[in-house]
Each structure stands twice: as C-alpha cells, then as structure tokens.
Design brief:
Layout lengths: L4 H22 L46 H5 L22 H5 L33 H5 L35 H10 L5 H4 L35 H4 L13 H10 L5 H4 L29 H10 L5 H4 L29 H10 L38 H10 L5 H4 L35 H4 L19 H7 L10 H7 L7
C-alpha cells in the first residue's frame, strides 16, 4: 500500500471504530452482512483478508458479492454469532484495526463504548441482551444494591434519583429519604414535622408503597381498637408529642365523670380504666369483681330500689344481691325457690293482676299460682284441663268473640268450643265436616275456598270452582227429580265431588 492510501486507511479505521461503538445505540439499519453501507465511509482495505478475492467477490464487479456466499462462523472460528450479531456486517469486526479475536476477548467493551463510565461494571450482559441493545431487568439488578426498589420506587423513572440516567451515567445516589423527599417533609403539617424536629428516619413511619398513610410504631403503647382510628392530635394536644401521659384517665376524665351507671365519681371507683374498659370501645365495660366483698348493694343500691319485677323494696327482699345475681350479667337473676311450693302470690300478686290472656282477676282464677306456673319460667304457665270437657266458653268467650278466621260470632258458630278445639293448643282448631267432600282432592282446602260468605258458613258454593253453563246443566238434568242449578243441590247428588 502506498503512502497516499495511509491517511484514508486511518480515517476509515477510526470511522469504523466509532460506528461499531454507536451503531446499536443509534438504531442504524444494517445492510446484508456481506455488503457495506456507504454511510460508514470508504470500504476498509483488506490487508489482513485472504488473498483469494473470489472467495467473496464475483468477477463481474469489485462491489458484487457472490450470491451463494456463506460462512459458518461458529464452525470455522469457534465463535457463534447470536442475536443482532448474526446480522452485523462482516467488515464491522473484521477490518484493519487489528485481529478480531483480540477485541472479542475483551467482551462487549471490545466493540461497544462504555457510556456508563465504568459505574456499572464490565459485564454488559447483566442488563443488555444480544437481540438488541435495549436494557432489561434493571429492577432485579437494582435489588442487589444497597437500595432495593420496592413499592412506588420501582415505578419511578431512573432520572428521579440519577439525573444523568438518560445518557447512561449512573453515579451512586444518596439513599437517605430526605435527599428526594425534602418537599414532602416541608409540606407535612399534620403533624408539623419540621416543628417537631422530625427531619430524618422517614422510614420509621413511612413505607415505600406511598408517602401518605404513614403509621407510627408506638412500640410500648400500641394503637389497638378505637385508638387505631384516632387522630394523633386527639392524644397529643397542642402539638406536643413527647412526654404524653399514658394513663387512660388523662384522655377519658370526661367519660369517667359523666358515667352514672354506676356513678364512678360518687362511688370512688378507681381511675385505672383498663380494669373494666378495653380499647374496642368505652362501652360495654366488664368489671372484674374478683377480690370484692359481698356487699354488692354498695354499688347497686339504685338497681335494688328501681327493680319492679318483682318490687324488691316493697317485697322486703334482702340486699344480699349475690343470692340471685352474679357478676356476669346483672339482669339474668335466678332465685332459688327450693322449699317454696305455695304462697307464690305473696311475691307475684302484680303479675296475677296484670295477666290478661286469660284475665286471671276478671275470671276469678285462684291465686294458687303453682297450679299452673312453675319456678323455672313464670311466663310458661300450663293449665291442667283434666275433667273439663265442655263449657269452655265460660273461660274462652273472649277468644270466641275475637276470632275472625272464620268469624265465629257472625257465622253463628256454636259456643261448644270442644267441637273444634282441644286443651293442648287452642289455636289449632279443626272442624269435622263429617262429609265425604272433605276427602280426596278436596282434603286440606281452606274454609274460605268453598265458604265465600264468612258471615254464614252454612252457605257454600261448588259452582265457583266447577263452572258449568246453566242451560247445558238444565238440559242434562231434565229428568232429575228436584234438580235446581244451585250448590246445595249439586252437593246432595255429588257428595264426593264426582259426577256419579
């Protein structure tokens, strides 16, 4: 090669090195691997190439490559061309800048400029693949650093923390929250972080998911129940957060003073609210009675005086409340009636006089309550009807007169209640028609199905359900003695509901 060619060769070599470094980043479209894009500059001289030009070129023209040219790079050189490398032009690696093997031995840095300035190491394949130069898996790689990306940080653009990221420069960033969140700190007024001197350790309250919704770890005073929903200022008044009194009474003195059932202040109940109350809510409270003496009346005198069922004071009940009550539920009192089997009315006169179903006093019921009631459940009285088989109306006239389904009085039903009712259950009355019409398909019909006139149950209708044309029925019954087109006549001949 003469000296005139040397400047051209050097310029071309430098141009190739630059284009090899920047081609992928610029996204230049490659020409076929055996050709050369003129935009790269003059063709590189082939000083190191085989002397047999016909291996690649045709004899028709210097710029024409043989159509059947092929080269098994992996088999011939031991270096397989993968991904985008398989489509790269041969001359971009095999040129006069030196043996390609020397550059291949350097890895990616042999051909590609390190735009990261050595900040990310020499192993380009940690982020870049051979298919294209676009990086991938940066989040996973970042997890190996001193600042793993989680929550909102994983979605933040790289330039948020690395200002030169768009040109590939990733200088180590400050991992302190305040380096990025100074504006958030200045804006935090509820509570005022700057005023309290909270200017570091943001992660004590905040998490990477979102800046809002911070939660302070109270540690020795955990926020549970209703306290978890309370605002900081509810307990930390006046913007003072240090030295807050941990005793419940410091916040709940108003509730203590306003409680009248029982009257905490008057009875001198302790201000250690936790003995009875929990953080789930001020009510209901549960008093731990263990260790207390039996003088319940000291706290429950108002309950004793105000009880009317039965009237403790009027009846002269003892004030040893524990005889009937327990500490689990004041209202679930149980009186031991052992040995008391008569004279109930002495305690239960008010119940006797107030009972209206039936009206004990009006009907002259005896005051021997134990005849019908027992001591387990006063309301479940049972009357022994043994020997009483008729004249029910003497006790049950009110029920007879008030019954509307059917209306006994309007329909003229007899007052012999025992014809339909029994002593087991008054409401389950059953009427025996003693007629075949109540069997078969008619069994179980409601009374009103046939007895449309509730004022007169002697009146009934068959024709409403078994509709016929009168003229046709008159013609078919022309020879039937006593025939009329009316339900009683129908029933007299068809008691089973069939056309016999």
């Amino acid at each position: 090669m003469n000296r005139l060619h040397r400047p051209l060769r050097l310029a071309a070599t430098a141009g190739l090195a630059l284009t090899i470094t920047l081609a992928c980043a610029r996204g230049l479209k490659d020409t076929p691997v055996q050709s050369w894009w003129e935009g790269f500059g003059p063709v590189i001289p082939h000083d190191k190439f085989p002397a047999d030009c016909q291996l690649c070129h045709t004899g028709q023209g210097w710029h024409e490559i043989k159509a059947d040219f092929s080269f098994d790079h992996a088999a011939e050189t031991g270096y397989e061309l993968e991904g985008a490398h398989a489509q790269a032009q041969c001359l971009r690696c095999h040129n006069d800048r030196g043996p390609a093997a020397d550059f291949a031995a350097r890895g990616c840095a042999g051909c590609h400029e390190d735009v990261h300035l050595g900040q990310l190491g020499q192993d380009c394949e940690l982020c870049h693949g051979k298919e294209n130069w676009q990086p991938q898996g940066q989040i996973a790689q970042h997890q190996q650093t001193r600042f793993p990306l989680v929550g909102a940080h994983a979605a933040a653009p790289c330039r948020s923390c690395h200002p030169a990221a768009e040109i590939g420069v990733f200088v180590p960033a400050d991992t302190e929250c305040l380096s990025c969140h100074a504006d958030n700190l200045a804006a935090a007024k509820s509570p005022d972080h700057l005023a309290q001197g909270w200017t570091d350790g943001c992660d004590r309250c905040h998490i990477p998911t979102a800046w809002t919704g911070a939660a302070f770890n109270h540690g020795w005073w955990p926020l549970t129940g209703a306290h978890a929903a309370a605002k900081c200022a509810d307990c930390h008044g006046g913007g003072v957060y240090a030295g807050t009194d941990p005793n419940c009474f410091s916040c709940h003195a108003t509730e203590y003073g306003g409680t009248t059932d029982p009257d905490h202040a008057a009875l001198g109940l302790p201000t250690a609210c936790r003995q009875c109350h929990t953080t789930r809510g001020w009510k209901p409270a549960n008093m731990n009675h263990s260790g207390l003496s039996g003088a319940c009346v000291d706290c429950h005198l108002d309950d004793y005086l105000n009880t009317t069922s039965p009237d403790h004071q009027a009846q002269g009940y003892p004030t040893t409340c524990q005889d009937c009550h327990d500490t689990q539920n004041w209202n679930n009192a149980v009186f031991d009636h052992g040995g008391i089997n008569s004279g109930c009315v002495s305690c239960h006169l008010a119940e006797y006089q107030a009972t209206t179903d039936p009206d004990h006093q009006a009907m002259g019921f005896p005051t021997t309550c134990e005849d019908c009631h027992d001591t387990k459940n006063w309301a479940h009285g049972t009357f022994d009807h043994n020997g009483i088989v008729d004249n029910c109306v003497s006790c049950h006239l009110a029920e007879y007169q008030a019954t509307t389904n059917p209306n006994h009085q309007a329909a003229g039903f007899p007052t012999t209640c025992e014809d339909c009712h029994d002593t087991v259950n008054w409401n389950h009355g059953t009427f025996d028609h003693d007629f075949p019409i109540t069997s078969g398909k008619h069994k179980g019909f409601a009374c009103a199905k046939c007895h449309k006139n509730t004022a007169n149950y002697a009146d009934f209708t068959c024709i409403d359900c078994h509709a016929h044309r009168k003229s046709k029925m008159d013609d078919e019954h022309r020879d039937v003695n006593g025939y009329v087109y009316a339900s009683p006549a129908c029933y007299s001949c068809h008691p089973n509901g069939k056309a016999d």
